[in-house]
Amino acid sequence: MIQNVQSAADLAPAYDLVVVGAGPAGLSAAIEASTHGLAVLLADENESPGGQIYRSVDRASDADLTRMGPDYAAGRRLIERFRSADLSYARRATVWSVGPADEETGDGAHALEVGISLGGIARPIAADRVILATGALERPFPFPGWTMPGVMAAGAAQILVKSSGLVPSGRTILAGTGPLLYLLASQLLRAGVSVTAVVDTTPVENCRLALPHLLSFATSPYALKGLKLLLDVHRRTRVIRGVTAIEAFGSGQFSALRVRRGKKSLHIQGDLLLLHQGIAPNLNLTLAAGCDYVWDERLAAFRPTVDVCGASSVPGVSIAGDAAGIVGAVASALQGELAGLTAALDLNRLGQGAYQQRRNQLSRELALALRGRTFIEHRFRPGKTFRVPEDDGTIACRCEEITVGKLREVAALGVPGPNQMKAFTRCGMGPCQGRLCGLTAVELLAQYRDVSPGEVGYYRLRPPIKPVTLGELAALPHTEIAIVAVAGFVERAADGAQGK
Amino acid sequence: MFRRLSDRKESSVSFTFNGVPTMASQGDSVAAALLAAGHCSTRRTPVSGAARGPYCMMGVCFECLVKIDGRPNRQGCMTTVVTGMRVETQDGAAMPGQEE
Ligand SMILES: Cc1cc2nc3c(=O)[nH]c(=O)nc-3n(C[C@H](O)[C@H](O)[C@H](O)COP(=O)(O)OP(=O)(O)OC[C@H]3O[C@@H](n4cnc5c(N)ncnc54)[C@H](O)[C@@H]3O)c2cc1C
Ligand code: FES
């Protein structure tokens, strides 16, 4: 049975392994490691385990399971296995730093230290191994009007259905590209939502680019599912393809979408606009932990570099699932198992022979689960103009309201990377810490300098990766110097309010 | 803008939004409860005063920031509503990391 960690006081000072994220990757890593006798803590920000795909599945009714489909329902079994595993689980727990143990305050026995906030109290936890299974984020989708109320991420609508049984009540438009856009369209249609249109922004040339990978896709488990999904959505709503630009209109609230197809344009009235153009690895914690990363041209995103078992460039820190590259739920779970198994080997809870045997089996299953991904990546790669908007008035950084035009102005001054851009414009300096502007800023700069985004690099990310309040920091058994070193600032203002 | 599916049967929870008594379902996040109650714009930005509402619902965008029981800068989508909670809009107030 899992031990539910209710408050920071219930946390042990140290664990063999800390796993961050309770999606398929994190759950599988934690279960695997615990079966080999490791003392495991699994920390996750959400109310209940499951991550993105299996969100709230343990509370789901039969009607919910039918609505969301068999891939969602499959999460039930994983969560049942998790509930009967021998490990500690902290829900509503945010991990805001991972790094080498502090020489002064560390216990000397554990190599790593993890900063966790739980119920308003922050705690440093010592660990021998850390597995980051922090999943993916929806890509930024900047175009004129995307910041307006009534425009939301498609994932947000899916979260509202899964967690609260809330569905859009008015005319709903979905726009963008990617399998998840069609999955959501089909889920909403099944829930009786009035989906006015699916505005597909996939570049037309993608079909041609994906063609060489068709065979491996056709023989993968994705093929039949994907085909069914597309047919279902096409049958039940209007799908507009070959879209070259979109713009949202409304006075203070979304009311219409202008859709351009080459020279033609049409207006679609609606009450809610849902956006999606694929997902990208959630980099904040892995980068703040100091893990090396590369630009992945196919994903059009950065991903941390890991070996076949998920080991990152930072000793003791592994990355599994979508956090290391977009692989989907089944492969995420297998990567989690591999990382958990390897942690057990590293900590001498498993012999080499047994390890090799199980590792080989998992690797074979993983190769199978990954089949077809290359096709999907090419087929749904979002177009350049939707990644870096041409319209200078478009807001790139939602927090600081910095436009693409402003970024171009600063790029013209010859700034070498996004960190200098941030210093000039404040782009990426707001509370989202670049999560919704990072890729846009980097690709814009790369375009300007005519180099690969890999050469431009990403924001320098430092802990805490989420704002930590005064109350939480005060609870840390650290000197002020140590707090500044970890957090970059010390709060002095009244409770909750912040100041430098 | 959102309606509750009829096959969902959670018990209800009452909280206040800007002083007005509002109902939520057990397990709703603050942001979900506000959307369910018809509030899709829940703050104004500190820079231009533009209206914004929850965007990602998964703790990423910080568009859902509200004041909860007197504490500003709470992520509405990551906080579960409980009975008697006081939720207020945060108009133009500085967000974490923005103050000089
Ligand atoms: C919004 C969204 C919806 C999706 N829906 C589907 C779907 O319906 N079907 C499908 O096949 N695929 C879906 N995906 C793709 C999905 O990412 C993968 O299929 C799968 O969930 C990846 O598993 P994972 O374990 O790697 O990460 P995830 O399932 O994303 O789990 C990561 C977990 O880590 C937690 N976390 C992240 N950072 C921290 C931190 N610092 N501290 C504490 N906890 C943290 C997150 O809250 C989350 O619970 C979706 C992706 C997104 C972004
Ligand atoms: S809605 Fe994005 S952080 Fe809450």
UniProtKB/TrEMBL annotation, chain A:
Q: Which residues form the FAD/NAD(P)-binding domain?
A: 15-333
Q: Which UniProt keywords apply?
A: Oxidoreductase
Q: Does the keyword Oxidoreductase apply?
A: yes
**Which superkingdom is the protein from?**
Bacteria
**Any idea where the SoxA A3 domain is?**
402-475
Q: Which GO terms describe its molecular function?
A: oxidoreductase activity
Concerning InterPro entries, the annotation shows: BFD-like_2Fe2S-bd_dom_sf (IPR041854), FAD/NAD-bd_sf (IPR036188), FAD/NAD-binding_dom (IPR023753), Metab_Enz_Cyan_OpOx_G3PDH (IPR051691), Opine_Oxase_asu/HCN_bsu (IPR017224), SoxA_A3 (IPR041117)
CDD domains recorded:
GlpA-like_Fer2_BFD-like
State the name under which the record lists this protein. Answer: FAD-dependent oxidoreductase
- The scientific name of the source species is Rhizobium fredii
Automatic annotation (TrEMBL), chain B:
Q: Which UniProt keywords apply?
A: Oxidoreductase
Task: Please list the GO terms describing molecular function.
Answer: iron-sulfur cluster binding; oxidoreductase activity
Q: Which InterPro entries match?
A: 2Fe-2S-bd_N (IPR042204), 2Fe-2S_ferredoxin-like_sf (IPR036010)
Classify the source by domain of life.
Bacteria
Q: Which Pfam families does this chain map to?
A: Fer2_4
- Please tell me whether the keyword Cytoplasm is annotated for this protein: no
> Does the record's keyword annotation contain Oxidoreductase?
yes
Q: Which SUPFAM superfamilies match?
A: 2Fe-2S ferredoxin-like
Protein name per UniProt: (2Fe-2S)-binding protein
